[in-house]
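thread: overnight batch results

M.L. [08:02]
morning all. the overnight job finished for the chain we discussed friday. pasting input first so we're all looking at the same thing
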Amino acid sequence: MTLSDKSYYNRLCRNILADRFDWRKYCTPRLYFGREICVIPLHCSYGQIGYSIYFPYTNAPTLEFDWEMDNLTIDDENWKDYLDT
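M.L. [08:03]
and the structure it wrote out:
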């Protein structure tokens, strides 16, 4: 059974926010619930502040989680707002 895009992003976002997503595991492309994803750590001048998730070889939106601000976005938009549209 394949999840719809909205269901997939909803599950991924909720797992991230519940701290059930092991982002280190996906620093090289791997399958996550049947879709290939890859994580890039986000850095600033004083160290890592979060990570970005992208879907290689697709036009899928990029997710970013800034753990300093406790902010999760999909294509620079609040994840809940993005999924409601």
